[in-house]
């Protein structure tokens, strides 16, 4: 239960509780899974700057946004620029190629988690070449490849069978990108009484296929899966990045209410 203070969500408590659950789930994970302790990305989409400042004030540094325009506004907000100099923005929504140039130059952009095809990867690679010329300290743009593990038409992501090929394209044809691993959104509302989440099983298989094909250490290839309702189960299966929103910030407003 999220405690509210003066009508607002207690973000600090939400983060502390989420981190405690991450620690607990990580401690229970099978020793056969060689993966680091998961990183918490606090998903702040549709939430006001004040709540981000609250989270940052207790040490949270990684924040996720779904909408390009909202990320632009937040990343350039004077309060964020002044008080959150070490913030790391993760873009976790659908990125259209015609909006690439709007996002690559943002302050403190840390990672694009949703590279779902070669066209987007190529566009990001070209855009980062220009960004790198202006900011030599930023040699690479961190990315994950998004995989549509559930097969839902409304979900973006490459098909699992193409995961190895997309990873190959990014690593071999896009020298300005650094591919850190794989990501999925998955189907919402899996009933865990029926067994493990098939989307998590599928993403871990893609992870294994990539590691085997390219002789990568599984512990060094990131796996971004798990949200507020299932991040504990995701960690137990091998997730190294969890994207948690409502458990920290409360229920989010609809996009047209943001």
UniProtKB/TrEMBL annotation:
Requisite cofactors: pyridoxal 5'-phosphate
Where is each Alanine racemase N-terminal domain found? 36-252
The keyword Protein biosynthesis is assigned to this record: no
For this UniProt entry, the molecular function terms from Gene Ontology, in alphabetical order, are: pyridoxal phosphate binding
N6-(pyridoxal phosphate)lysine modification, residue list: 45
Entry-linked HAMAP family: PLP_homeostasis (MF_02087)
| Protein name listed in UniProt | Pyridoxal phosphate homeostasis protein
